[in-house]
Write a structure and sequence with these properties.
The protein is of the alpha+beta class and 366 residues long. 50% of the residues lie in helices and 26% in strands.
């Protein structure tokens, strides 16, 4: 009887367990758009007249959403590939991050324009359905195949070739302008134009024909412009300085640190300094008016104040192109040392400010 009771108890326990679990749920059901996955999912087709790109999206809530996302992925892949293809001649590293970003953006936009002509060649999807409560949840894994005619890439390359030739022609004309300005002694105007040529040439390949006997390729044109810009910049950053001895050194030191070659004028007379600058081909005359006043004692030292009024003038016209007013306090063991300390601080600050202003003038051609 004990054995019979145990058997009945076990059977009852199993029955209760089965009732608690409820009816058995179905596993996920997968259906697909075709009985067999297409071969292009593993390897894109090869065609003499077209390029193929694939894209995929897993777990989309709808077929349309999955198709759109897969298409976007395929277009991104195509844009990356075509971006390299249509810019295969772009073999230059841009000089600044901003320029590099602009070039990359331009290439991407061109690639996007090309792939607009791509057509949807095929779609394959798998639907996974799972029960959820009284209904089901469907998710879609979608793959797409894009077809892009190679003639579209060829057209873009031809368009780029034409654009490059037009750019080289424009840069050549700009170089001629720069050379003419340099001959006339207009250094800043020449410098701006030489820099324009360099900027225009940087995105181009070095082997683009210009049709000019002196500068037959874009690479030669760029090299000439770069060399000329460096030489003209060196000539443009020269100045004659009229200043008291106790402050001239600090002003010239600051100018030198910013790439300027400054020398003391042979005379304190402005007219004479202007004549000297013109004779030496120097574009700038810098005049420093300085006043030093003694201050009180600072513990075991003495103080002094320096006030500077500095003007930078165009040596050819005499026009004031930049100015700076600076004051500084210095201390030293003697009144002379205190004056020198104050003058050094004020002179360096004024020189830095003038140098920045003169460099800015280079970008405008005065």
């Amino acid at each position: 009887m004990a054995s019979s009771r145990s058997a009945l108890l076990a059977a009852a326990t199993l029955a209760l367990g089965a009732a608690a679990c409820g009816p058995e749920k179905l596993a996920a059901v997968k259906t697909s758009s075709s009985p067999k996955a297409p071969a292009w999912m593993a390897r894109a087709p090869k065609d003499a007249d077209a390029l193929y790109f694939t894209g995929a999206k897993e777990g989309s809530a709808s077929l349309d959403e999955g198709k759109d996302s897969a298409m976007a992925a395929a277009r991104d892949q195509a844009a990356q590939y075509i971006g390299v293809e249509i810019s295969a001649e772009h073999n230059d590293v841009m000089s600044t991050e901003e320029s590099e970003n602009k070039a990359s953006d331009k290439i991407r936009s061109r690639a996007q324009a090309v792939i607009r002509s791509a057509e949807l060649a095929d779609v394959y999807y798998e639907k996974i359905s799972r029960e959820s409560g009284s209904g089901t949840i469907d998710r879609y894994d979608v793959w797409v195949l894009l077809k892009l005619p190679k003639v579209e890439i060829a057209r873009e390359r031809a368009r780029q070739d034409d654009e490059a030739k037009q750019t080289a022609s424009s840069a050549l004309a700009r170089l001629r302008e720069a050379q003419a300005q340099e001959k006339q002694g207009n250094l800043l105007a020449a410098l701006v134009r030489y820099r324009d040529v360099v900027a225009q040439m940087k995105p181009l390949a070095a082997n683009i024909a210009t049709g000019d006997k002196d500068y037959s390729t874009s690479g030669r044109l760029r090299q000439v412009a770069e060399d000329a810009a460096a030489q003209v910049q060196s000539r443009a950053r020269r100045a004659v300085v009229i200043a008291p001895d106790w402050v001239a050194g600090s002003v010239m030191q600051a100018l030198s640190a910013k790439g300027f070659s400054a020398s003391a004028a042979a005379s304190t007379d402005e007219a004479a300094a202007m004549a000297q600058a013109k004779s030496d081909g120097m574009p700038w005359v810098i005049v420093v008016k300085a006043i030093a006043t003694p201050g009180g004692r600072v513990f075991s030292q003495v103080a002094a104040n320096a006030s500077l009024d500095v003007r930078a003038m165009d040596a050819r016209s005499g026009a004031v192109v930049a100015s700076s007013q600076k004051q500084a306090k210095g201390v030293g063991r003697t009144p002379e040392a205190a004056q020198q300390a104050a003058a050094s601080e004020a002179g360096i600050n004024a020189g830095n400010e003038l140098a920045a202003a003169l460099v800015a003038k280079e970008n405008t051609g005065l």
